[in-house]
Every structure is written in structure tokens, then in C-alpha cells.
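User: Design a sequence. Structure:
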């Protein structure tokens, strides 16, 4: 019988902002917002001093400035962030080869059989955090659990600079009072749908049969059923290259195509910010739409050179909207914007400042 997995989720604390505060002592103790200024900019990261004012990543920069007028805005420097991320990755690899990076600032580790002897997975997590602090002058939080789903929730429990452990015998008691919104993938729209069924906590969710949840929510319903019971059989998969990154939103009311521009711009900003966290380069812009009748449409375009800025990325996404040929009165319940076709930087052609968006692939 295979041993029960011991999974860590390591999450760097306010990573980009912490790098800025580490490298500039004048920023320490101040509310730092990593973002370009401007009406169309979004927050890449916020220090914990800024978070006290409600500033969060992916928030429009103008809103962050309203919430925290004294915030110090720092433009992102992804070269430095990637250097720090590589240092952290090297520390992970001392302890296990089973490292699955999720972005520059977080990763799953399978330490069921660690390279370095340790009395427990918790001890391994503490050793990793100590080495990160000593070698990079940054802090990380860790979740320790029998699977990826639980480890990710746990890593957020004692942030910043903390560890939280969920032992197998504690899983049911831990999950039962947890708000369903803590389940990855349950956003505000899904949370409302569950609330309409009388489901507010994971314990409430556990009272529904798998068939009922699947009938209502499709494959995600099956996932909800498993999460409610702390089940997650996914293995840690090392060095899985990013294939696509996207952001999507389901509207509170169905909208016509002509009214989708604000949502497309907002989601493009969110996807672009997430894409900058990976070292690979995305080349294909994808627009996804779902009609009120649940018909799904996708439009995509691969320019000769990868989008070099948020403005270019957004312009292509908006141009893709114009290629939708359904009747004008058609209403849409969901829109998504993404990047696909990721490659290593050396494989991607040099980025140009401008490109033609006239000829597009379906």
C-alpha cells in the first residue's frame, strides 16, 4: 500500500512588494503598491501595510489609490522577481524533485519521501522557510496536508510568515465550518448559487449527493462533492509548462455584445497580470463567450509577435469581439479573456511595438 502523501503548498508573502521593500529600505513599513499608475492599470501586488486599507492584487490602481492615498506606487520589475523566484526554486529542489510551480511566488511540493531526512513534513516546511528567509531575506507561508487542495487552503491560514498543518484525522473537522467560498474555483457567482440552495459551509455542501451536484453544476459539481470530503487525488507534477492563462466572469444579468467592452478590459488586465508571473511567453489571444442559451463561442488570434503590453493584448481581445457574427439581440452570460500558446522566451520571436490585427484565426 502506497504511503499517504505529504504535500506542501509554499506561498511567498506579498512577493513582489516584499522584494521591493527588501531592495529599498526606504519602503519598509510603508504601504507599497506594485503597479503602474494610470486609469487602466491594475495592482500586481500590495504590501501588508497596504492591505490593511483593503488594497488587493488585480484591483484597479485608481481604486487602490482612493483606498490608500498614502500608498507608494512602484512599477513592477519582473526581472528581479524572477531572479528571487529562481533562488526559492533552488531551495525547494534541495528537499524534493517533486516541485510543481504555480507561478513565480507559489508551488506545490510532494515531500512524502524527502531528499533530506526530516522527522515530519512540518519539519521540512520549517526548514524550507528558514532557508528562504536566510538566503533571500524574504518570508514564505506554508500549508502542510495530505493533498494539494487542503495544502493550498492551509498555506493561507497563518499568513504572513506562518505554517498551518492539516493532519488526516483533522480533515473533516477542519472542513465542516469552512465557508464554501474558500474552495478554489468558488467565486461570488457560484457562492450565490450555492447559497440559494442553502449551502453556506462545506458541511452544508457535504449533505448533497454527487449526482445532484453534477446535475446542477456539471463537472464542477463532481469537484465540489470531492472537496467537501477533502478528496484530491491529483499528484504533484513537476515542471509542467504553462499552456494557457485566462480570466472569466459570469454576469449578474445577461448583456448584449455592445456592452461587454468594460468586462473585456477588466479581464484582460487580470489575465495579463497573471501571465507576467510566468517566465514563458504567450502568443495567442483568446476570447470566450457564453450566450444566455449556454452556447459557447471562442475566437482567437496569433499575431506575428507576442503581445508586448496590456494595451496590445486588450486591443486584440476587443477586435476578436467584433468577429462574433450572432444576431445583435443575442445576450451573453459569460466572457473570458486569455493567453495561450506559451513558449520559452528564447523560442518566441522578438516582440514588436505594433502588429496587424486584421487577419485573425478562428
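Assistant: Done.
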Amino acid at each position: 500500500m502506497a504511503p499517504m502523501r505529504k504535500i506542501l503548498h509554499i506561498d511567498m508573502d506579498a512577493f513582489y512588494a516584499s522584494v521591493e521593500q527588501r531592495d529599498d529600505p526606504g519602503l519598509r513599513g510603508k504601504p507599497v503598491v506594485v503597479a503602474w499608475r494610470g486609469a487602466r492599470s491594475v495592482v500586481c501586488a500590495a504590501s501588508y501595510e497596504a492591505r490593511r486599507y483593503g488594497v488587493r492584487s488585480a484591483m484597479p490602481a485608481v481604486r487602490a489609490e482612493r483606498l490608500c492615498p498614502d500608498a507608494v506606487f512602484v512599477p513592477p520589475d519582473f526581472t528581479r522577481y524572477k531572479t528571487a523566484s529562481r533562488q526559492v526554486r533552488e531551495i525547494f529542489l534541495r528537499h524534493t524533485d517533486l516541485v510543481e510551480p504555480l507561478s513565480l511566488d507559489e508551488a506545490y511540493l510532494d515531500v512524502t519521501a524527502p531528499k533530506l531526512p526530516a522527522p515530519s513534513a512540518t519539519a521540512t516546511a520549517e526548514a524550507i522557510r528558514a532557508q528562504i528567509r536566510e538566503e533571500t531575506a524574504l518570508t514564505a507561508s506554508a500549508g502542510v496536508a495530505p493533498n494539494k487542495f487542503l495544502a493550498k487552503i492551509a498555506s493561507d491560514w497563518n499568513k504572513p510568515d506562518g505554517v498551518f498543518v492539516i493532519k488526516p484525522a483533522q480533515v473533516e473537522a477542519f472542513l465542516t465550518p469552512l465557508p464554501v467560498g474558500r474552495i478554489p474555483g468558488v467565486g461570488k457567482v457560484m457562492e450565490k448559487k450555492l447559497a440559494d440552495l442553502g449551502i453556506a459551509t462545506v458541511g452544508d455542501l457535504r449533505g448533497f449527493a454527487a449526482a445532484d451536484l453534477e446535475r446542477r453544476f456539471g463537472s464542477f459539481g463532481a469537484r465540489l462533492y470531492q472537496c467537501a470530503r477533502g478528496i484530491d487525488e491529483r499528484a504533484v507534477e513537476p515542471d509542467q509548462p504553462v499552456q494557457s492563462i485566462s480570466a472569466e466572469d459570469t454576469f449578474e444579468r445577461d448583456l448584449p455584445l455592445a456592452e461587454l467592452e468594460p468586462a473585456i478590459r477588466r479581464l484582460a488586465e487580470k489575465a495579463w497580470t497573471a501571465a507576467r508571473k510566468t517566465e514563458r511567453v504567450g502568443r495567442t489571444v483568446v476570447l470566450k463567450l457564453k450566450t444566455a442559451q449556454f452556447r459557447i463561442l471562442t475566437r482567437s488570434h496569433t499575431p506575428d509577435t507576442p503581445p508586448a503590453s496590456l494595451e496590445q493584448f486588450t486591443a486584440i481581445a476587443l477586435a476578436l469581439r467584433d468577429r462574433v457574427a450572432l444576431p445583435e439581440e443575442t445576450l451573453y452570460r459569460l466572457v473570458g479573456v486569455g493567453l495561450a500558446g506559451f513558449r520559452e522566451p528564447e523560442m518566441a520571436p522578438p516582440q514588436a511595438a505594433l502588429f496587424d490585427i486584421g487577419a485573425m484565426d478562428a
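The chain has 13 helices and twelve strands. The radius of gyration is 22 Å.
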